[in-house]
Specification:
The chain is α/β, with parallel strands linked by helices and 449 residues long. The chain folds into two domains: 239 residues, Glycogen Phosphorylase B (Rossmann fold), CATH 3.40.50; 178 residues, Glycogen Phosphorylase B (Rossmann fold, 3-Layer(aba) Sandwich). The strands form two sheets. The protein has an eight-stranded mixed β-sheet with strand order 3-4-2-1-5-6-7-8, with helices on both faces. The longest helix has 31 residues.
Length: 449
């Protein structure tokens, strides 16, 4: 009896293993035949954060056996490269670039013109090649790019997914570019409703962004998913300041350093940082600003006018130096300007966590940053205009260096467990290709995050 039972168990196991192998092969073949087009205005050699993130996502999705193509523009924010090849292949991803160069990048009207021109180019490309793809992923760079997906869907039933980095027209209204009652704002809301209702899926970066959208468009709730940004943990790693050439060159290894890295624009809180700098003017602490943006220039001017000598300003660094610039500090800053929570989401947060640095976030009380930083135990959050609280936190870290190290290590650990390219790409794969969700139900959990 035992022998019969044992033979039956072995036979059953072999049959089960064969079935699993067959399902795995079938899923792999289906994935391999899945064709994805990503459309975004910015892509390396541009150093714009959206472009860098899309590149990493495209490469990682390619590793997931998805055929990835990218349609993008010519460089607008590159160091020495004004033009890039019209067609090239990088790390398995085929990239096609528009022939149009970026114009008047330092002006809002110039950026708007470039965005409209790229949208037209992208729309024409999509109309010519729509049938070559199973799904199109469109970013909000430029903000109205998803309209091209809507038109292609009307004409050719193309599946498209909207990836919302910044929420418009809300951002333009909060920044005073247009009023809430302006005809353009009303039209924009109507267009958003049409575009989102007809999209296959909508990806937002934070829960607060999701709730802001649903407050106006509750009918799209089944289509919207929260997927965070990420950082490459194999590229950005913790590095002691004493062993960091970037820190040594800029004197960041000789005193406690607070870093603001990346774009410091209209959507970021500068006032709280300035207040903190003034309060700590006679304390041996150095504030370093690396990047650019409208408020970056304002900060430089204020520092000069008020004779603040505890700060240093550096331009955007070559991307290859990012693992060294991010690890050259003791504390890193992240900020969102008042009333802009749920409209923008700072992508720099994840790189800082990968670098193993403590974080001070300036944001509103209901910000998603509060819960994330609390869960990761990697820093502290402060209300807008609470420069005193931020200054006291810096003094506390200066008096207890091990505390900053402990927070940084905790942030790194949390990021590796939740926000790596591989983890995030699997979440994107679940909404881009429903076949994956059917064959691997755990991937479908992203819808409820």
């Amino acid at each position: 009896m035992f022998k019969v039972s044992n033979r039956w168990t072995i036979k059953t196991k072999k049959l089960f293993a064969k079935t699993i192998r067959g399902q795995s092969k079938q899923t792999k073949d289906l994935n391999k035949n899945f064709r994805l087009l990503i459309i975004t205005q910015f892509y390396p050699p541009d150093y714009a954060a959206t472009g860098q993130l899309i590149q990493e996502l495209a490469v990682q999705l390619g590793k997931e056996n998805i055929q990835v193509r990218v349609f993008t523009g010519q460089p607008g924010y590159a160091f020495k490269q004004q033009k890039a090849p019209a067609l090239e292949r990088q790390q398995g991803v085929v990239i096609r670039r528009s022939r149009t160069c970026q114009l008047w990048l330092n002006r809002i009207r110039g950026k708007t013109f470039n965005g409209i021109l790229f949208t037209i180019r992208a729309g024409l490309h999509l109309l010519r090649h729509a049938r070559n793809y199973d799904t199109v992923l469109l970013t909000t760079a430029p903000p109205f790019l998803s309209v091209a997906g809507y038109v292609a869907n009307l004409l050719f039933k193309v599946n498209y997914v909207c990836l919302i980095y910044d929420l418009y027209p809300d951002a333009a209204i909060k920044l005073g570019v247009i009023t809430a009652n302006h005809p353009l704002a009303k039209l924009w809301h109507i267009v958003n409703q049409l575009v989102w209702q007809n999209s296959k899926q909508i990806v937002v970066l934070t829960e607060t962004m999701k709730q802001r959208i649903l407050a106006r468009h509750p009918q799209i709730a089944p289509q919207i998913s929260v997927i965070h940004n990420w950082a490459n943990e194999d590229w950005i790693k913790p590095l002691a300041k004493q062993q960091n050439w970037f820190a040594h060159i800029h004197g960041m290894d000789r005193q406690f350093t607070v870093l603001y890295s990346g774009n410091l624009g209209r959507c970021h809180d500068l006032d709280t940082i300035i207040e903190t700098m003034e309060l700590l003017q006679n304390v041996p602490v150095k504030f370093v600003f690396i990047g650019a943006g409208a408020k970056h220039d304002i900060c430089r001017q204020i520092a000069s006018d008020r004779h603040l000598d505890n700060c240093t300003f550096l331009p955007y660094q070559d991307r290859k130096n990012l693992p060294y610039s991010l690890t050259a500090c003791d504390l890193a800053l992240v900020s969102i300007a008042p009333s802009l929570e749920g409209i923008v989401a700072p992508s720099k947060l994840y790189g800082i966590m990968a670098a193993g640095k403590a974080i001070a976030a300036i944001c509103e009380p209901h910000s998603y940053l509060r819960q994330l930083i609390q869960d990761a135990n990697c820093g502290q959050c402060f209300d807008n205009h609470d420069g005193l609280g931020l200054a006291e936190f810096i003094l506390r870290l200066m008096s207890a260096p091990n505390l900053a190290t402990t927070m940084g290590n905790a942030g790194r650990e949390y990021m590796v467990a939740n926000f790596t390219p591989k983890i995030i790409a699997q979440q994107y794969r679940a909404i881009l290709n429903p076949v994956d969700t059917v064959n691997n139900p755990s991937l479908g959990m992203v819808r409820n995050r």
